[in-house]
Amino acid sequence: MKDLFVTLRATLRADLISGFLVFLIALPLCLGIASASGFPPIAGIMTAVVGGLLVTFLSGSEMTIKGPAAGLIVIALAAVEELGRGNAFDGYRLALAAIVVAGILQIVFGILRSGVLGDFFPTSAVHGMLAAIGIIIMSKQIHILLGVKPDGKEPLELLAEIPKSFANMNPEIAIIGGLSLIILFALPLIKNKYIRMVPGPMVVLLAAIPLGMFFDLGHEHTYLFLDHHSYTLGPKYLVTLPADLMSGIVFPDFSQVFSVASIKYIVMFSLVGSIESLLSGKAIDGLDPQHRKSDLNKDLVAVGVGNTVSGLIGGLPMISEIVRSSANVNNGGKSRWSNFFHGAFLLFFVALLPGLIHSIPMAALAAMLIYTGFRLASPLEFIKMYKVGREQMVIFLVTIGVTLATDLLIGIGIGIATKFFIHLLNGVPRESIFRPFLTIKKEGESTYIIDVSHSAVFSNLISLKKHLDELDRDHDLVIDFSNTQLVDHTVMHYMHTLAHDYEIRGRSLVIRGLDQHVAFSDHPAATRRKPFA
């Protein structure tokens, strides 16, 4: 704790500024994520406040921002709807109980040092899951942006209803939502550095709030559009908040926590939340100018504690959130105190200016979520997967398709099963699917030679990493894949990351023995297979 306050004195100005800028991004996103999840909007703020004021001091990462994430919207909303069986408030309280138990499970994961589990899930399946989440978010939010309540509930039904919603849209709501969406897509195209310093969500609010006042959304009324059709407007199109922060506290209902449905959501909250947190932590480590490495197991415990507390007071599940964490790095944050300050600013803003939040149109929040969903399911993601290799594209598309047709758990499971099937077709020996075969020898005074045989694939990477982590990092490393049948994309991606880490420390990592392997594409991290005899 003493070191934390020493750090605060050294980084106060930078972390205070970055925390404020992240707060500007987080405020509308927290509100939007909560509303889209079937939770009260205040729940999103409460989650980020817990993530900032509490989890900061437990975290194993210096630069990540903790808070609600778009990637868990799909699970949270499904939990509210399925557990509540038509009663939204009951479903909300039952979902809170699932979040609390999932948080405790994440604490256990961290204590058991399960942070390495993030390496088990193949990259293509994880990206497929995230892309499917993006599509589901867009399929739900486009109707809110247009001011229409759809008939369908499932993602494929909602996608099919989009033309109908355009035909029946509420014009003034659609103007607010459409303008907000244009701002979000146009701002990154502007090259002026001063304009780009202003967070896109804040620009959206600066445009949407005055428009909402101009259209008098605060009062129930009807209006004629083009003198031939009547539409209704009113406060239901604005964010609703309790009278004060304490009134927003809701306690969970544990009466069904051991039901089959609750257990399903406990597994999904803990599994998907942990995967997203671990991936975000690794990504932000790569962006950190000081090249610090997160203790992912400690961070998993911290997120678990945060989720337990958040669920107990009515909040959403939290993760190490990638967009806000990236903004923290880009805004010059220096330490974990920027996460603390972002939570403190949120608390003060909601406590002092609740009326301003109530004037935010829901269509503006829907636009922010559509933009977030589009980034998760961007056409560039499809192109990127295709460039890595056609087999990665197959796994990616299968995961998306199954997730849209069923749910996240089945989708990621089928995606992993597809990768196993493709590996077996490519000649991976069954005995090496989960176990890496390798020998380690020392050459000279400062070099290790690792000879890998049979296969190096995502499912045996955890064990391979464990062996590599036990080596003295002050030595150079040579990894020889001459005797492998196949080295997959997940392992190749890890090898490139590891080589970069060695380079930063002034050591070298050489990968050899792939001359006889055929790459599945021109991508440097493409799967490599030795031709069949």
Q: What's the short version?
A:
This protein has 21 helices and 10 strands. It has 533 residues and is α+β, with helices and mostly antiparallel strands.
Helix/strand class:
alpha+beta
What shape does the CA trace take? globular
Strand content: 5-15%
Largest sheet: 6 strands, mixed
- The number of domains is 3
Mean pLDDT: 92
Radius of gyration: 24 Å
Extract low-pLDDT stretches: none
Oligomeric status of the shown chains? single chain
The DSSP helix count reads 21
Distance separating the two termini:
61 Å
Helix percentage:
55-70%
Give an account of the 3D structure:
The protein is α+β, with helices and mostly antiparallel strands. The mean pLDDT is 92. The chain folds into 3 domains: 358 residues, no CATH class; 46 residues; 100 residues, 2-Layer Sandwich (Transcription Regulator spoIIAA). Strands 5, 6, 7, 8, 9 and 10 form a 6-stranded mixed sheet that branches. α1 packs across α10 and α8 packs antiparallel against α10. The chain contains 21 helices and 10 strands.
